[in-house]
Amino acid sequence: MTFLWRRALPALAVVALLLASLQLAQDAAGEGGRFAAHYRWILGAAALALVVLVFAIGQRLWRLRRDIARNAPGARLNRRLLRLLLVLALPATVVVYGFALRFLDATVDNWFNVRLEQALDDALELARIVVDEHLDAAEAASATLAARLAAAPAGADQQTLDEAIDALDAIQLAVLGSGGRVEALASSDPRYLHPPLPDGALLLRLESDGRYAAAEPFGDGLALRVVLPLGRSDRGLAPTRMLQGIFPLPPRLQPLMRSIERASFDFQRLKFLRGSLKLTFALILSFVLALSLLVVVLAAFGVARRLVAPIGRLAAATRAIGAGRYDTPLPAPSNDELGFLVSSFAQMTRELERASARAQRSAHEIEQQRAWLGAVLERLSAGVLGFDRDGLLRVANRAAESILDVELGGELGRSLAELKTAHAELAPFVDPLARHLREGLREWREEVVVATTAGRRMLMLRGAALPAQAGYVAVFDDLTVLNRAQRDAAWGEVARRLAHEVKNPLTPIQLAAERLRRRFLGRLPEEEGELVDRATRTIVSQVEALKAMVNAFGDYARPPQLASGAISLHALVGEVLDLYENDQRMVLERHLGGDEPRVRADAVRLRQALHNLLKNALEAIGEAHKPHIRVTTRVVRDGEQDWVELGVADNGPGLPDDFGERWFEPWASSKQRGTGLGLAVVKKIVEEHGGSVRAGQGALGGAEFVLRLPLAGS
Amino acid sequence: MLALLVAGCSLLLGQQPGTLAVKAARIDVTGAGAMLELDLDVNLSGPMQDALDHGIPLTLRVEVAAGAWPHRTSVARQLELRWYPLSRRYQLREASGEDVRSFTTRTYLMAALTSLRLQLPARFASLPQATRLRVSVGLDPAALPGALRLPALFEPAWHLAAPDYHWAAP
Predict the structure, then answer these.
(1) What is the pLDDT of residues B5-23, one digit of tens each?
(2) What residues of B are in contact with residue A214 (Cβ under 8 Å)?
(3) A655 neighbors A703 (Cβ within 8 angstroms)
(4) Cβ within 8 Å, pair B145-A200
(5) A414, A393 in Cβ contact below 8 A?
(6) Predicted TM-score of the model (pTM)
(7) ipTM of the complex
(8) Are the C-beta atoms of residues B64 and B124 closer than 8 Å to each other?
(9) Using a CB-CB distance cutoff of 8 angstroms, which residues of chain A are in contact with residue B84?
(10) Which residues pair with B132 in a beta bridge?
(11) What separation, in Å, do the N-terminal and C-terminal C-alpha atoms of chain B show?
């Protein structure tokens, strides 16, 4: 359908106009008349073709305007080219039209020069004179014959005519009676057996002049017709009988006469048709002009479209490539400069696609590196802060937030001054950091102490400028934790040596003291015997005490060898608490929450930890008032991990003011008696199970220690 | 251009067309067949008379139709009016026949059109009684010279056609 409207119909219209113009021109020149009866249809078809062409052009104009309005690629260039082509073609066409009209007018006028017309008129007059001379001769011969007929007896007319026809060299001789009745007839040519009857005009002439002689068309040529009345004819009265003679012109004169008459005839006809001929050719030329103009406009559209189409597609491809779509098809390159442009564009597209792919790969790799770096940073125990060249915070890992005990996610993009304003407690950390950044040192380190909500922390702060002035990075370690780990290791070593070096001599000392007691207790005087008894008892009891203490250290220093298994925490807690249940000196309260939380743990070690906590609580309460201990469990969720918390609270004096991490180290105790290893062992056991321990004020007014253990299967 | 167009249109509208009418028509059945006897009232327009005097032949097309579809039969005859400058005579000729009549004046030529006899095919001699007959007469523009055909389409002076004449066969 589109092909019909856009190509076939305009082409058909052009062909129709051409055919109509050719046919009209041919007919106007007098070369044919086959379609003369169909002029209305031809003109209608031509008008319809003009309408179709005008419509096709209008449609193209409307489409071009729409393309320009929606900023289609190449539309404006198309309009410019169209204007250019029309400016080049239209004036030339109109000028040719004007000249053709003028030329036609001058040419047609030149056909009718005066001398030629005069010559033809003279020739015609000459022919008439010749005819008149022959007419006079024919009339004279006819008059002689008419006299003979008049003198001849009645009934001899036919004989007279038969005798005269050859003598007079006539074609036909006839005697006509009244009413056109043929009374006698003689013919030298069998083709003319019927005499032409005199018409009213002839009779009128005969009545008025008494004779009629004229050259008349006869058959294919010209013949001389003479009509004379027979007998006496009074002027003004119609004759009753007439002699009519048809005489030929000499054969040599016939073609000459015919030629002269035809030439004069044609000239007069052409002269008369001059105006019509001009008008017809002007109309045809106007048709051709309209056709030319419309074809030029259509062709201009086509040429402009063909020229601009590759450029438009290139422009569209440019936009598509600008949007990142490299698979946009390009026009097929032609063998010209435009083809070179297309080829170059295609090559540039390929290069761009490769560069884009490389950039994407690089971006992906950078993203991977960033993710990898982020993962590394997140898993570093050291805190890391990154600053750009303007000193704005860009990176902070989780360890930094943990160590500084602040949320740094919301501080990204802020300067150190703003960070200090928002978190005044970080001033001891921020100030040296800002100072070093200002100084622009390549690398530096400094120890700083920061008071956080979790206590004072000693930090080793190190900084370095990034290459290419990309910014700065600060890394800091929590020396507090390092120191504690070092102390834990040292205490482990002490405990191990104590177990090894001190425990071994204790048994011989105890045995030696018991041997002295058995040998000398009954043999010595009473006073000396009592001295030996007290001394050996003291030695044995102190050795036992030392053994107990050494065993405790042994437990603390023992490397973790857990016999882990999934156990029910409530069952284990119940077993331990049952041992204290019957003790009337204390109140034991249990609040076990959750649905039988199960933990993966060494039941013996965990039971020991709970014993230590209960014992620690009882020792802390002392004998001031009746001990009241509450044991609780509850399940909590922290991040992606489910935990169970086991709390032991008492109604003792509570935690000392300076309670901190140090109180979980050996020898840290506020009690007169004890090894100071209870909480240290509890902490060690809990950490062996992947948990943690914390202390705080309990609901009963005293302290509360809470063990946090991971739930089994979580 | 528009002014020229308007002037041309006004000139065309100012032209006086000729008149043509069929005053009487009948079919005369003779031993030789059927003859159409026509009485035409012809008044040529000025341009037509001028053209005739300048050697342009004028052709009148006479179409006779009998009956109704599908038994309709028709025949067309052409009458040529012409001027011969050498003999200074007008000629009336039936194109298909040999009947040629010449006249010294145009008046006689026009008068001859009031009593035309045209030979018809034999089928017109045996038409059933009361068969409807129709004759239409008009100037045949296709017979005009090529240069005159296009203007004749637009100029009223060149429009010459008689209203159809109807009668019934006796």
Answers:
(1) 556 666 656 667 889 999 9
(2) 87, 89, 104
(3) yes
(4) no
(5) yes
(6) 0.52
(7) 0.75
(8) yes
(9) 217, 261, 265
(10) B168
(11) 59
Instruction: Compute the radius of gyration of chain A from its Cα atoms.
Output: 70
Look at A26 and B100 and tell me if their CB atoms are within 8 Å. Answer: no
Residue pLDDT, tens place only, B120-164: 888 888 888 888 999 999 998 888 888 888 788 888 888 999 999
C-alpha dihedral, B87 to B92 to B94 to B99, nearest 10°: -70
- The answer to whether residues B92 and B101 touch, using CB atoms and an 8 Å cutoff, is yes
- A222 → chain B, closest CA residue: B87
In what side-by-side order are the strands of the sheet with A221-229? A182-187, A172-176, A242-248, A221-229, A212-218
Q: Does B11 touch chain A (CB under 8 A)?
A: no
pLDDT tens-digit map of A395-444: 888 888 888 888 888 888 898 889 888 888 888 888 888 888 888 778 88
The verdict on a CB contact (< 8 Å) between A43 and B153 is yes
Q: Which two tokens stand for residue B60?
A: 């009148």
Q: Which long-range contacts (CB under 8 A, 24 or more apart) does B75-80 make?
A: B75/B120, B75/B121, B75/B124, B77/B36, B77/B118, B78/B140, B78/B143, B79/B113, B79/B116, B79/B118, B80/B143
Burial (0-12, 13-18, 19+ Cβ within 10 Å), A324: exposed
Which of A29, A196, A264 comes nearest B146 by C-beta?
A: A29
Residue keyed to tokens 């539309």: A75
User: Which CA distances in Å does A645 have to A592, A599, A695, A696, A704?
Assistant: 10, 11, 12, 14, 12
Q: Which residue of A has its CA nearest to B87?
A: A215
Q: Are B157 and B18 in contact (CB under 8 A)?
A: yes
Instruction: Kindly identify which residue of chain B lies nearest to residue A132, measuring between CA atoms.
Output: B87
Tens of pLDDT along B65-77?
998 888 888 999 9
Residue B52, CA distances (Å) to A214, A267, B48, B106, B146 in order = 21, 14, 6, 9, 15
Helix or strand or coil: residue A332? coil
- Identify the CA nearest to A603 among candidates A642, A646, A566, A635: A566
Q: In the block, which residue shows the tokens 């003279």?
A: A122
In this structure, which amino acid lies at residue A201? A
Q: Are A620 and A697 in contact (CB under 8 A)?
A: no
Q: Point out which residues pair with A452 in neighbouring strands.
A: A455
Predicted pLDDT at A107: 82
Place of tokens 């030695």: A539
Q: Which structure tokens are listed for A200?
A: 């009213």
Residue carrying structure tokens 């709390």: A647
Pick the closest to residue B66 from B165, B137, B132 (CA basis): B132
**Residue B70 C-alpha, separation from nearest chain A C-alpha, in angstroms:** 25
Which residue type does A587 have? V
Burial class (CB in 10 A: 0-12, 13-18, 19+), A501: exposed
Which residues does chain A have with pLDDT short of 50? none
Walk me through the domains of chain B, giving residue ranges and CATH numbers: 17-78+109-168 (2.60.40)
Alpha helices in A172-252 (DSSP H): 200-209
Report residue A506 as tokens. Answer: 């204790």
Using the CB atoms, write b or e for A406-421: b if 16+ within 10 Å.
bebeebeebbbeebbe
Model pLDDT for residues B36-60, shown as the tens digit of each residue = 999 999 999 998 999 998 888 999 9
Cβ distance B66 to B74 under 8 Å? yes
Contact B86 A269 (CB under 8 A): no
